[in-house]
Amino acid sequence: MNPCDRLRGLLSPLTPEDLIANILTKRDTHWSVSVGYLYGANISSRHLLTHPQSLYWTALESLDYVAVDGIGLQTILWLDSVITKKSQPQRYPNCNGTDLLPRLLNQATKKYQTCSLVLYGSTLEQIKRTQDFLEKQGYHVIYVQDGYRPFDRDAYDHAAHAYTQHKKILIVGRSTISRPIQEERRYTERQKCHERGFCVCLQGGIFDHSSMGGKEKRAPLIIQRLKAERIRRLVINPHKNAKKVRYAVKVFGDWFLARLKN
Fold this sequence. Notes:
The protein has helices at about 5-10, 15-30, 40-45, 55-60, 70-85, 95-110, 125-135, 155-160, 180-190, 190-195, 220-225, 230-235, 240-260, and strands at about 35-40, 65-70, 115-120, 140-145, 165-175, 200. By secondary structure, the protein is of the alpha/beta class. The protein has one domain (about 5-260). A six-stranded parallel β-sheet has the order 2-1-6-5-3-4, sandwiched between helices.
C-alpha cells in the first residue's frame, strides 16, 4: 500500500473542538483512550514513508486518535495527491498539540468533578516545574516521573490509591529525533494503561513549552497564520533545528523523486 494512503487511513479528520469532545466521550464509553500527533519532522526522521513494518507504524495504528500537527504533513499528502492525480484529496484540520492539550485539560476538568493528572517525561526538574505550573492553575497532579526510565507502575499505583474514583489523564512527553520513545512505551504498556483508565496524551516536547510551564513560547499569531513556525524555530535556535530541517529535506526529496519515478 502507498504509505500516504496508509497515513490517510490513520489520521483524524476532526477539528480540534470535535477531537476533544470525541476523546472525552471515548474515555467514558471505553474506559480508556489514547491520542498522538504526526507532523513532518517525525515522519521523516522515523522513516514512516519507507519502513512500513516498523514498530512506530504499529504503535501509531494502535492509538485511538492520531491528529495532524503542522503544515509539513499536509504538504506531503498534497504532493502525493498531485502525483497520484486524486480528484478530491482529503483535507485535515491542524490540531497543534501545544494548543490542544490545555483546552483538553480545561474541558476535562469542567466535565469531571474529580480529574487528576499524571506527568511522565523530560527531566525531573522540568517535570516538577510543570507540576507547579499546573497546580497553580488549579489542576490536581497525583504522580510525576522523569522520562529516562520505564514508567514505574508500582509507584504510580501507590500514589493513586486514594484517587480510584478520579478520571486520570496521563501526559507523556518523551521522544528523540530518531526514536519515538513515548509511542513505543505506550504501545508496550497499552493494556496496563487501559486497566488504569488512562486518557493517554502523547505530547513530545510539551513540558518544554510555555503552555506547560516551560521556556519555549509559541510563535506570534501572524507567524502561525503564515505557516512559518518551523522557519522561526530554525532562526531562533539553529543548533537544535538545523539538523531536523536538513534531514527532512533529504528524506522528503528522496521520497518525492521515488514517487515521480513510480
